[in-house]
Amino acid sequence: MVSTNSEVHREREPYVLSLPRTLKITSEQFWDLCRTNRDWRLERTGEGDVIAMPPTGALTGKRNLKLSTQISEWADRDGSGVAFDSSTGFELPNGATRSPDVAWVARVRLAGLTQQELDRFLPLCPDFVVELRSQSDKLAVLQQKLEEYIANGAQLGWLIDPAARRVYVYRRGEPMQTVERPNTISGEPVLHGLVVDLMPIWKADL
Fold first, then answer.
1. What 3-state DSSP class applies to 9?
2. Burial grade of 114 (CB within 10 A; 0-12, 13-18, 19 or more)
3. What one-character-per-residue DSSP string does 61-82 give?
4. What is the reported pLDDT for 123?
5. CATH number of the domain encompassing residue 139
6. In-domain check, residue 135
């Protein structure tokens, strides 16, 4: 049994580099910045500020893998879209560049992209996103990110909070729904046949 002491699993909070509003980094420049700093997970807000997140702790890494594996396997069976992990960047319509923990995009939206666009940050908002809260994540910040995804075109979003065993469900055009201590979570009616087992996510050890 691995200790669940908060000091053991505590993760570093992201660093935020606030840029002058007169300084605009282009998509090309931000791509080069991310390639130069490959050990960091970088995001960019709609206002242009750069957010750097260090690697996750072991427990969050395990949870991310359990979660992304289930969604990836469903996407392969379903065939109507493609699942992406947390290393994938998306350029949202509002100018932000985000990397959700898990994302899914319908194939019909990917069909028209060039090879260069596929090799870089995808110039679109995913249809489905998941954010997994770690101990250092502020709930309000993650909730704002989910709202941003929905406002930029996502059809469904999950914010999973393992510590509280709670899932916040966001759907386009509907109020946010809070689901307490579920054993599973369904993607219906947006993602047909997707049911994620949350029991491995709720486990507080390795």
1. helix
2. exposed
3. HHHHHHHHHHHHHHHHHH-SEE
4. 97
5. 3.90.1570.10
6. yes
